[in-house]
Give the backbone structure.
Amino acid sequence: MTTRTTDTQLDPIFLNRWSPRAFDRSDMPEADLATILDAARFSPSASNLQPWRFLYARRGDTNWERFLSYLVPSNRAWAENASVLFYVLSDRHADGKETAGYTHSFDAGAAWAMLAIQATMLGYHTHAMAGVHFAEAAAGLGVPNSFRVEAAIALGRIGDPTTLSEYQRAREFPSARKARDEVAYPGDFRG
């Protein structure tokens, strides 16, 4: 198991946030979901365009099975135990121009990060997924052509890891991070 540490005054929320696969199938109160979505809503964005959209289904609602169906089987196997599933979209033309806005994905990523941190603050966890049938999700969710489906996110409370496959169970811990000097350095790119 990886222990996350730092030599800075980093708030523990950043060390405690991680992406489990074992969720407990519990229902999420509407107030908690609204608070988590509000964190995403107040994210920064270029020119305040706010190009993100979060489509969601709650466990057991009429959209749940459909939202699950757009995940690749290995993700669906564990994501079906989450409380909420999201699809994060970004509007390539949020500024109303014919050409794609340069920061739409960047801004949607900022909104997703805020959502993840707020969820952690409330005792939940999130797991973003690129294992999505993107074209099927876009078509099935009625996503306009100007939008891009960026990722799916499972949200819920941590559950029993024995519900996971042996492969997934072996990965069920906070992952390590590259050293700070590997991801940030002064001056030119260092590869």
The domain at 19-171 is CATH 3.40.109.10 (NADH Oxidase). The radius of gyration is 17 Å. Residues 58 and 184 are 38 Å apart (CA to CA).
